[in-house]
Write a structure and sequence with these properties.
Distance between the termini: 19 Å
Helix content: 25-40%
Strand content: 15-25%
Radius of gyration: 22 Å
Structural class: alpha+beta
Mean pLDDT: 74
Number of domains: 1
Largest sheet: 9 strands, mixed
């Protein structure tokens, strides 16, 4: 039987007065917007965007959420508190502790770094201490605000990742917003599941990226809304003569994590004075509760048990194809990670940069199709905000959230389904809102509202992926060209329908 649980949290009314300007309230209820705030109902020609529009149809029941119209909070360099939480003083102290050498001048230095001169490079802000520190602080604070009503899961913060959208104006970089968050450090080791409801990989960065996909679908619903104000509030815009939407020019995507992604950069990479060249690295897989090279994995095991490619290899792929995946590639152009900040991981920052940006070589300009490229992600390191010790009790638990969700969701990574203690249980049979079945449901909703009925006639999730032919071609080319190893897709797992 499906279990549905509602959050015990109490709704808080919004104090905002500007239409489509949405700030987190002190209780962290991102999704609550009232008519008093001036928000107009968003209607389409067929289906209105309401509290359940993302989760309708096959999966998910009442999630108590509404789409997010504007996802940025103005920091303006005048206050270092993030999204004005109740414990804002503690956040200021945390920020100051990360800049202990300049505590007295923290505010002034932040204003300078957050407001580069017009003559400076528009991307120079990503290399500033302000950017690194603020990425860590805002991600940590978002996790803390989400866990106020669920303190038993706080130890899951030891393995956390968050995606942040940043808007850069002509003179400053002062709009930051956490839009997706994930925690975890495990993979499912059971037999394969063929209905799309099992979560295979529950490592923090992978979960955060799936939560980001959920957020991107919400943004598509804004763009496809009949109200022009909804489209204006969306992070995407049309591109003349091109079928796919693109991220607005002033917006960029960034990633924070307090653990180096599992894979070659952390476990198999060797470089130093004793080696004249780097050892070549191959694809690594999580299988049999171990991380092993693909060459050590028997085909019989791959065909029957869950095997997940390492997070490092996925990160490397994303520098070419983007983080949007095959399904969203039907709607949007490749979405690349501008910078990745590692909290407390100075040892691995340079290694990860080498593995991700250098191991697949150069000379891709004349090979890749339009809008695809080898994107050079900046890898930065800063001190971790309030480090948390790993608790054996939470070794297998994985949390996820994206902007607009009322509650966190807790997945048992060893099983690939929701844990019985999860505050949010909106999917049938304990399936996660981030499972493939759910993503397929979101895709169908976006296709319906966007007038792409052709996709609705395709028989399975697999066929929709294959239809993203340009994306699939780039994905195969990236690794085969450099003999990095084949990316073995779980084709049989993907043959499920709505």
């Amino acid at each position: 039987m499906s279990k549905v649980a509602h959050s015990p949290r109490t709704d808080a009314s919004s104090n905002g007065k500007s239409t489509f300007l949405h700030f987190d309230d002190p209780e962290g209820d991102d999704e609550h917007v009232t008519e008093e705030a001036g928000t107009h109902p968003m209607t389409m020609t067929s289906t209105p965007i309401n509290a359940n529009v993302v989760d309708s149809d096959y999966v998910f029941g009442v999630e108590d959420e509404v789409p997010d119209e504007t996802v940025f909070v103005n920091l303006s360099g005048e206050d270092l508190t993030v999204e004005q939480p109740p414990d804002s003083a503690a956040v200021e102290v945390t920020l100051c502790s990360l800049c202990e050498a300049n505590t007295a001048d923290l505010k002034d230095s932040t204003e300078i770094e957050a407001t580069p001169s017009l003559s400076a490079s528009p991307h120079s802000v990503w290399d500033t201490d302000f950017h690194k520190i603020h990425m860590a602080a805002i991600s940590s604070d978002k996790f803390d605000s989400l866990l106020k009503m669920c303190p038993n899961f706080r130890d899951c913060k030891s393995h956390m990742a968050a995606f942040v959208l940043v808007r850069v104006s002509e003179t400053s970089c002062n709009y930051y917003q956490v839009v997706a968050l994930g925690t975890g450090r495990s993979c499912c080791t059971s037999w394969l599941c063929f209905n799309g409801t099992m979560m295979h990989d529950c490592h923090a960065m992978v979960i955060a990226r799936r939560a980001l996909l959920r957020f991107l679908y919400k943004q598509l619903l804004l763009f496809f809304d009949a109200d022009p104000q909804s489209k204006e509030a969306c992070i995407f815009e049309g591109n003349a003569g091109e079928p796919q939407l693109r991220l607005k020019a002033e917006i960029s995507l960034h990633l924070y994590t307090n653990q180096c992604p599992e894979g070659a950069a952390k476990d198999f990479y060797m470089r130093g004075s004793a080696y004249s060249t780097r050892y070549p690295v191959k694809l690594q897989y999580h299988a049999k509760s171990l991380l092993m090279p693909a060459t050590h994995l028997r085909p019989s095991h791959w065909a029957s048990k869950v095997c997940c490619i390492s997070a490092t290899d996925k990160l490397c792929l994303w520098t070419f194809v983007g983080v949007q995946g095959a399904l969203l590639s039907h709607f949007i152009q490749p979405l690349y990670i501008t910078s990745m900040v590692l909290g407390g991981q100075k040892l691995y920052a340079s290694r990860l940069s080498d593995i991700t940006n250098e191991c697949l070589g150069d000379g891709w300009e004349d090979i890749l199709p339009p809008f695809y490229k080898k994107y050079h992600t900046r890898f930065l390191c800063c001190e971790e905000v309030q480090p948390v010790k790993v608790s054996p009790q939470h070794n297998v638990l994985s949390l996820n959230w994206c902007l607009g969700d009322r509650d966190i969701e807790v997945v048992d990574g060893s099983k690939g389904f929701l844990d019985h203690s999860s505050p949010s249980m909106s999917g049938p049979d304990f399936s996660s809102r981030l499972c493939k079945k759910a993503l397929h449901s979101y895709f169908c909703k976006a296709a319906q509202l966007g007038g792409h009925d052709y996709f609705l006639d395709l028989p399975s999730y697999h066929h929709i992926k294959v239809e993203a032919s340009v994306y699939q071609t780039v994905k195969e080319l990236v690794f085969l060209r450099n003999h990095y190893g084949p990316w073995n897709s779980k084709k049989l797992v993907d043959f499920f329908s709505a």
